[in-house]
Amino acid sequence: MKVIASALLLILLNGVSYSQLKTAVNNRGFIGTAGFGLSFPGSKIEFPPEAGILGTSFYFTAGYLINNHFGCRLHVNYNSFADYVYRSDRQLVSGSFHVFSVSADFLAGTFNKKSPTNFYAFVGLGSHTLSQGRQGEISIRKDETSFGASLGAGFNLKLYKGLGLSWEIQYNALVGNESLNGYLTFSMLSLSYVP
């Protein structure tokens, strides 16, 4: 994972030299996104053949660009998944479970004021809470809160004065969670602001 993160960082910086960083106009300012997408749960959740494994994701971010290449942000994400389990009498019980996460992300990429597009990668650390799925009074899974790390990449398209659209893909790895060891999110539509 460290090798992949290092490679992404090198690609995104596009061979920028120290002298270019010194002479470049710093692009500082607040950044943010809000949007929705699709989620795919990790391998610890065991779904019967009747289950669909696709979930939905809603999120927002708020942060600050330090310069043309680095930034940090708060990332809040809510994911909802359909859930199916067999009871002891082998009857299939359906319900849902939800993952709410709050993380701090570090961004590295190209955030040029004059360019209409920005490519970036990010790593993050945060808390992920899996809420209990229920069907009526039947508990499907127990509540768990886990520490997690995330790795992702994104693309931003500016449309008017910093406002635009963005797309991201992100994998969240959870530590010590009995039900879920990770999940992948892919943003379908996000409104964004990047100066």
What can you tell me about this protein's structure?
By secondary structure, this protein is mainly β. It has one domain: Porin (Beta Barrel). It is 9% helix and 62% strand. It contains 2 helices and 10 strands, in the order ααββββββββββ. The protein has helices at 2-13, 18-23, and strands at 29-41, 55-65, 70-86, 92-109, 117-131, 134-135, 138-139, 144-160, 163-175, 182-193. The protein has an 8-stranded antiparallel barrel. A two-stranded antiparallel sheet has the order 6-7. The chain starts with a helix and ends with a strand. Residues 7-23 have low confidence and may be disordered.
Low-confidence sequence ranges: 7-23
Structural class: mainly beta
> How are the strands of the largest sheet arranged?
1-2-3-4-5-8-9-10
User: What proportion of the residues form beta strands (DSSP E)?
Assistant: over 45%
Number of domains: 1
Helical amount: under 10%
Tell me how many strands there are.
Answer: 10
Query: What's the CATH class, please?
Result: Mainly Beta
Helices, by number, come to 2
CATH topology: Porin
| Through-space gap between termini | 30 Å
